[in-house]
Amino acid sequence: MRPFSSRNPFFYRVSVGLRRFLRRCSWLFGGVKYCSSCPSGEPFPFVVVSHRSLLLRKLEGTDIALQKNKVQSLHIAASLIDGVVVGSGEVFSFWKLVGKPSSSRGFLPGLQLSFGKLISMTGGGLCQLSNLLHWMVLQTPLSVTERHRHSTDPFPDYKRLVPFGTGATVFYNYIDLGFRNDSSVSFQLKVWMEEEYLCGEIRCSKALPFSYSVVEKKHRFVRGNDTVFRENELWRIETDKVTSRVASEKLLFRNRVEVLYDVSEIPEIEVEEAGE
């Protein structure tokens, strides 16, 4: 259920303003060592993980102009993160580096999912960058300190390259993406745009002894009380590079969200009944 503040414009603005103020206070007085906004000059020598995501997707019933606006906003945000180094003991904060996505800084109106509905908002669509970063971080020894996800599955999969449920939504500045470097080596983020894709890498100053992968288990669509839900589990596998032996398996997330689209129109989706 939506909180009362989200249904009343005045109280919503007050609530958002207060949360943003508290987040700024935590940045200033929280005692956390954040990584610098100053990017490193040369790329680090070792690529730990790389990924890319399609910039324009088929989203039925949406204005393609808003997706094209998103590309412009992503250009700005990516330039503010590209080359940033997360040193030992440092914490990465998406919003502390990107800053407020205002029109005066060149950010344009884009699609934003809010309480299960798509709306137009300045800087909308930056979740694509936070999604990319979060997915890559899961395949490194970096520790996620803050991550938020949508409570619904709004669109059918379209050229999905990663398991469902790995997203990390952001909303300035208190719904953030954060991760910490607990290792003794430094990591560098590289983000850039190609014609059709948003691309990224996480690089390291030294070669790592382990490789990391994320696997999906128990994925299904299930119907309960006339509502369809999508469920899965995501596990991180740590593998020794020398012996190829699995060193550890860790459960990252159990996802269960309401599906907003009509699954009956997608032949490849099979829906189980609750209790089966």
Question: Could you state the oligomeric state of the chains shown?
Answer: single chain
Biggest beta-sheet profile: 5 strands, mixed
Would you tell me the overall average pLDDT? Answer: 91
What overall form do the CA principal axes indicate?
globular
DSSP E strands, number: 14
How far apart the termini lie comes to 28 Å
Query: How do the strands of the widest beta sheet line up side by side?
Result: 7-13-12-11-14
**Class by SSE composition:** alpha+beta
Low-confidence stretches: none
Reading the helices and strands in chain order gives HHEHEEHEEHEEEEEEEEE
What amount of the residues lies in strands? 25-35%
What is the helix tally?
5
- Fraction of residues in H or I helices: 10-25%
Description:
By secondary structure, the protein is of the alpha+beta class. It is 21% helix and 35% strand. It has a domain at 16-207. The protein has helices at residues 4-7, 9-29, 64-81, 94-98, 127-137; strands at 46-54, 85-86, 91-93, 109-114, 117-122, 143-146, 152-153, 178-180, 187-193, 197-204, 210-224, 227-240, 246-259, 271-273. The strands form four sheets. It has a five-stranded mixed β-sheet with strand order 7-13-12-11-14, with no helix packed on it. Strands 1-10-9-2 form a four-stranded antiparallel β-sheet. A hairpin with a 3-residue loop joins strand 9 and strand 10. The longest helix is centred in the N-terminal third of the chain and has 21 residues, at 9-29. The protein is globular, with a radius of gyration of 19 Å.
